[in-house]
Amino acid sequence: MNQLLEDLLKVMTLERLERDLYRGESRDIGSPQVFGGQVLGQALVAATATVEHRAVHSLHAYFLRRGDFNAPIVYEVDRARDGNHFSTRRVVAIQHGEQIFNLSASFQASEPGLDHQLRMPDVTPPEGLPDAEFHLRELKRQVPVPEKLRRLFEYKRPFEFRPLQPPAFARRDTPESRGPAGSPHYVWFRAVDTLPDDDSLHRCLLAYASDFHLLETAAMAHGVSLLTPNLVVASIDHAMWFHRSARVDEWLLYATDSPSASGARGFSRGSIFSQDGRLVASTAQEGLMRLIS
Active-site residues: which are they? Predict the structure, then answer.
């Protein structure tokens, strides 16, 4: 297996300290704090470990404090409810004696029912599209990139991303590049190697990957990105609904838009489709998006 993906699986494998108490490692991905998707994924792993024969169908989470990637994170699970068809879990992530994150997740036993979905957008398939690293190389040829941001963008990830449009950091700030408020943003992504046949693992890794690109989508409407010197961004909350099973080692389309930004907060939502057109998950996130003078 690819070493980057193998290391991610190690990060997503938690140490059981006690009943309903787990500890996870962290990784530096080039950002000043723990990547939010890592905490989200690990918290879901902890919750899943306390549920049998039921799959997660929704989660709602809040990022409370910045995580320190030099220290482990402890996850405490509360078995809120086990009903006939649904189970609910609450998870608190603790680091240095303080809560840094909390999550509520609902699990459901498999059952048949009515079925419909949003139609997948008609977009260019991933084969042949350049990956995000290509756009970074092109940008570096044109303008100097600050060291701390170069670390973030150059970090080798266990997921491959192929945007249909140049990423926000690679665009010239023009009205045409911004597009109207709410314009959709499309990115194909998949794990860089084949993963085990474990549906719960794929759901946890999908949660991990879902934290990419949402804040970027909200910033794009204003012609700003992580390269903007006076822009401060951070995830505030994250919600996700798992509609259908999917493999994250196969191409998935992340279609995102941002209906609103106000009060130094940007709101984004996303739909994740398999390449054959199935809507597998939906996301929503509000993030801090503050311009400082």
Answer: 211, 235, 285
Helix (H) or strand (E) holding 270: strand 265-274
| Residues 78, 89 contacting (CB under 8 angstroms) | yes
What is the number of other CB atoms lying within 10 angstroms of the CB of residue 53?
Answer: 8
- Per-residue pLDDT, 154: 65
The pTM of the full predicted model, rounded to 2 decimals, is 0.92
Percent of the chain with pLDDT over 90: 73
The pLDDT score that the predictor gives to residue 181 is 61
- pLDDT of 251-263, one tens digit each? 999 999 999 999 9
CATH topology classification for 3-109+129-291: Porin (2.40.160)
Two tokens at 285? Answer: 């996130």
Q: What residue ranges do the domains of the chain occupy? A: 3-109+129-291
Q: Do 240 and 282 meet the contact criterion of CB atoms below 8 Å apart?
A: yes
- Mean pLDDT for 70-85 is 97
What is the Cα–Cα distance from 11 to 26, expressed in whole angstroms?
7
Q: What is the mean pLDDT of residues 45-53?
A: 98
For every residue of 192-251, DSSP letters joined together read SS---S-HHHHHHHHHHHTTSSHHHHHHHTTT--TT-TTEEEEEEEEEEEE-S---TTS-
Residue 152: the pLDDT is 62
Q: Sheet with 98-108: list strands edge to edge.
A: 15-18, 21-24, 73-82, 86-95, 98-108, 55-63, 231-242, 279-291, 265-274, 252-262, 185-191, 159-163
Q: For residue 222, what are its two tokens? A: 């204003």
Distance of alpha carbon 277 from alpha carbon 117, whole angstroms: 10
Q: Of 4, 67, 7, whose CA–CA distance to 37 is shortest?
A: 67
- Tokens found for residue 155: 């970090």
Per-residue tokens: 276: 């054959």
